């Protein structure tokens, strides 16, 4: 088994280092190989996703990813910007199924913007389609408008699209995931406006016939954005497209108040996967040793479970994290009165010790 | 001056009736004419936006709109569903500028999901472009995929697009609005992924040169969805496209906890406008006399200010609403211990009395 380790930019290197120490502590046998990605790769090789990095990722069973991006790359042409690396990895590895849990840990209820009774015990799984939709649809670009409100004016455009097999496979992923949970799926669309999402809704409804044990409901994306704020605990599994999933998964993550704790997994049809924290590269605190490594450590646990067939080792990491939280250690992002503030390294140490 | 009154479906008729009583109480001289829209129009005339209704709306200086929609129309073909009426009105009247205030009234802080300190005093203005983007872009439909992940498969697609003049005019609306407020605009885009929104960002930046007194920043839509939850009061004016605006304006409205209080205005370039509450038709409570009419009454105030040049009358309505809230009257949606629960009619009575 081989893991491609892509720490990336900002706090990426610091948090991935802790995840690796945790993996090492498990005494399993797999190979790890590190490569540059994002801004770091651009600086060294002139491209955010160099050929060698992509090759390594493709050959590995799993990719452990830190974070990419920094304001200093904002002025680069789009194809050279750090975030293109992540889009390129998703596309080239066919990582169509993004798992974004939004969990509120008991000890961290107070970190949420929401009133405790609304957020305590939250455990949502957002399944976002990750290789289709308006992210990759062609054609796109700039041109002269031939119709619309201002024919003759300069315009820019993108294409939203989903094909039947793309919707079918992500729907199956969602129904299968729900089977292992409370057996409820909410499919989020905008079928009242978009052809693409009327099609999405129709297909999810069809696929649902194969899962009579699962309860399915449909919700418009604007309503979902509201219901997440009003009563997040009413959701269990949410399945949606790439664009809506981008927005709703971040909204849900922030509702927990502890985005520094939330892992993610992006899988293809052979269970090869990319694992990364839900948060970003946080250039403002990079290099200071204060970033929370737990989302990355928990991403490594997801990696063990989903791609490396080591569910027991995954359990050990997750228990260790719970133990460390219970012991009162906190990085700055989740610190509160009465708990002990620690840095990235100390938090990693504590998880290693708990394992 | 002429007002087209389109009560629509569900609670629409009840809440619009109270807004009309409030308008009558002001003793101004304008003509009002009522017409069917949405499901009600479909039942009577087989179309959610009959020709006569559209004609009336076009000829009027302003449209006072209730709400449309009911689950029972879910099975109709898309062009016949109630919400097509609202899309048709926006398109045919050219209502490109949607004003969606998200205000948290002092007395209603407790109704929010958020902790009081995060929401008290909230006063955001979301300006959503309303006639462009993926809502109206052509082509759209179903076809056989010629490329993508599954060439040969059935697919559905839509076109996102913005032309230069469309972005310019909504940017100007936002900067002008910010001038009357705290002089800050956040433009929300997804320039890291979409051509349309890189174009949007470029043009907003250009137009900004004409407004050196206004502070402009840019934020990705996923981050905006998070920051609204984390620290909503950091925003003042938000300007964004039709699709992102749909999601973010509803999220922001729900953050206040009192969506039953939030009006909206949709204007064209001659200040003709459509005014409607931010909430929907609530078929579950329709006909029971319990709906909150205040969002509609406040929409009538916006109508007086923006389209009918009666700012003073608008002020009178807004003061009356504040007075009624201060007196402790509440409809069910905003009721809390220690306040007096009233129905739709009594709430209307109280506002009329306060005027
Ligand atoms: C960086 C960006 C392209 C990316 C996305 O929009 O998918 C990010 O927001 C995410 O959710 O992983
Ligand atoms: C009913 C629907 C078409 C509409 C929209 O998406 O614009 C609604 O959600 C709104 O925000 O007014």
UniProtKB/TrEMBL annotation, chains A, B:
GO terms classed as biological process: L-leucine biosynthetic process
Keyword rRNA-binding part of the UniProt annotation: no
Compartment annotation: Cytoplasm
Residues the entry annotates as binding NAD(+): 280-292
Pathway stated in the Swiss-Prot or TrEMBL entry: Amino-acid biosynthesis; L-leucine biosynthesis; L-leucine from 3-methyl-2-oxobutanoate: step 3/4
Name by which UniProt lists this protein: 3-isopropylmalate dehydrogenase
Residue numbers binding substrate: 90, 100, 128, 222
Gene Ontology cellular component list: cytosol
Primary localization class, coarse: cytoplasm
Cofactor: Mg(2+); Mn(2+)
Enzyme category, top tier: oxidoreductase
InterPro entries reported in the protein's UniProt record: IsoCit/isopropylmalate_DH_CS (IPR019818), IsoPropMal-DH-like_dom (IPR024084), Isopropylmalate_DH (IPR004429)
Catalytic reactions on record: (2R,3S)-3-isopropylmalate + NAD(+) = 4-methyl-2-oxopentanoate + CO2 + NADH
GO molecular function term, any single one: magnesium ion binding
Organism this protein belongs to: Variovorax beijingensis
Cofactor binding: number and manner: Binds 1 Mg(2+) or Mn(2+) ion per subunit.
PANTHER family: 3-ISOPROPYLMALATE DEHYDROGENASE
Subunit composition and interactions: Homodimer.
Annotated site, Important for catalysis, chain positions: 135, 190
EC nos: 1.1.1.85
Residue ranges of domain Isopropylmalate dehydrogenase-like in the record: 2-351
Sequence positions that bind Mg(2+): 222, 246, 250
């Amino acid at each position: 088994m081989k893991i491609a380790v892509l720490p990336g930019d900002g706090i990426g290197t610091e948090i991935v280092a802790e995840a690796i120490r945790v993996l090492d502590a498990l005494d399993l046998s797999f190979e790890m190989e590190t490569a540059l990605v994002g801004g770091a790769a651009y600086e060294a090789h002139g491209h955010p996703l160099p050929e060698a990095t992509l090759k390594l990722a493709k050959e590995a069973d799993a990719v452990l990813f830190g974070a990419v991006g920094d304001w200093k790359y904002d002025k680069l042409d789009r194809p050279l910007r750090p975030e293109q690396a992540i889009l390129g990895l998703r596309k080239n590895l066919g990582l169509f199924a993004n798992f974004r849990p939004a969990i509120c840990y008991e000890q961290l209820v107070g970190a949420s913007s929401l009133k405790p009774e609304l957020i305590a015990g939250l455990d949502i799984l957002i399944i976002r389609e990750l290789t289709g939709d308006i992210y990759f649809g062609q054609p796109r670009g700039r041109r002269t408008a031939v119709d619309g409100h201002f024919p003759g004016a300069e315009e820019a455009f993108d294409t939203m699209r989903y094909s039947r097999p793309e919707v079918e496979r992500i729907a199956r992923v969602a129904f299968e995931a729900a089977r292992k949970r409370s057996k409820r799926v909410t499919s989020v669309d905008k079928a009242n406006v978009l052809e693409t999402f009327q099609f999405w809704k129709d297909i999810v409804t069809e696929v649902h016939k194969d899962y009579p044990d699962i309860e399915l409901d449909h919700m418009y994306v604007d309503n979902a954005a509201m219901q997440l704020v009003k009563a997040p605990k009413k959701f269990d599994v949410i399945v949606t497209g790439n664009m809506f999933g981008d927005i709703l998964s971040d909204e849900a993550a922030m509702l927990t108040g502890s985005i520094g704790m939330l892992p993610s997994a992006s899988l293809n049809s052979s269970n090869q996967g990319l694992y990364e924290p839900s948060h970003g590269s946080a250039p403002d605190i990079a290099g200071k040793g204060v970033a929370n490594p737990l989302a990355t450590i928990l991403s490594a646990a997801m990696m063990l479970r989903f791609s490396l067939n080591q569910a027991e080792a995954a359990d050990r990491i997750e228990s260790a994290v719970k133990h460390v939280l219970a012991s009162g250690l906190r990085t700055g992002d989740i610190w509160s009165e009465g708990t002990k503030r620690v840095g990235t390294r100390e938090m990693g140490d504590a998880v290693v010790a708990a394992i």
